[in-house]
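dumping this here before i forget
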Amino acid sequence: MSDPVQPLLDEHAQLQRELADPAVHADAGKARKLGRRYSELNGIVEAHRRVEQLSEDLEATRELGSMDPELAAEIEPLEAALESAQEALRRKLIPRDPDDGRNVILEIKAGEGGDESALFAGDLLRMYMRYAESLKFKTEVLSSTPTELGGYKDVQLAVKSSSNDPAHGAWARLKYEGGVHRVQRVPATESQGRVHTSAAGVLVFPEVDEPDEIEISQNDLKIDVYRSSGPGGQSVNTTDSAVRITHLPTGIVVAMQNEKSQLQNREAAMRVLRARILAHQQEQIDADNAAVRKSQVRTVDRSERIRTYNYPENRIADHRTGYKSYNLDQVLDGALEPVVNSAIELDEKTRLEQLGQDPAGKRD
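structure:
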């Protein structure tokens, strides 16, 4: 049986040669794509080297252990270390989502619950911005519709990673956040101290690296301009700077009004539109693939209730992974990593099971 790692080691060596060529870096898009793949393979190469080194150490220790009791005592720890290293390599060989290295456009929309839902949407925005800050990601609010009480009817946030390693990409960390987030707490407007339940929806899209990656014909776009409005609907601009773009083939609509310039709003709207079209195309691919290829923790069902934030108990619970903790205040302050890791671990477990059962799940 051929070694499944060897082709990846050969690819890594080939990428190393290509990235050393100055001519490759004349094409920023190509260099970025090669750099991401090289970073991804780095982890496999290092894990493979670790397995090889431990295998050699274990073999030598077994040979000499028969004559040296002290060396013989090292055999069992080395066997455990090798088993752990082999499992780490096996996980590295799980086919990675090709979008993991991409940046993200994250949308938060108030749902049932009126003002309380809008306030919760603002809490989620702050949580994601703090979480992104902890990962040294950059954030940019592209558009928002604030409410008079300080919440948001909707807000769109761009999240950018500075790492070439797909495992540390914005999409790799945030793609599991899409769905309905439910909050249980006493609203600020509640005079009798009763706990209310409301919800906000989160949509996450991988951002397109280069504008020409997604072909959009101008004939497929319907562009409307209008005046920006603030909380309560009042006009906040005397010119038609707000932009609404409709992509006719898919029916996707994007509206932007944050900037005072119509051109800036149009550019921001096109960023979001490309991301939504890319996600739409991926959803179609997922629908065409076998069910076993789909993740059990990141579905295309945007109405799925994924998490509950219970303020009276200071509890956060993820309904997909079973994760539960009683540090909601810290999570809302950006300590989201354990929750995200629970989703990543479940997804990896599912993919590992698929690799053992479905030949189609193997890396191409």
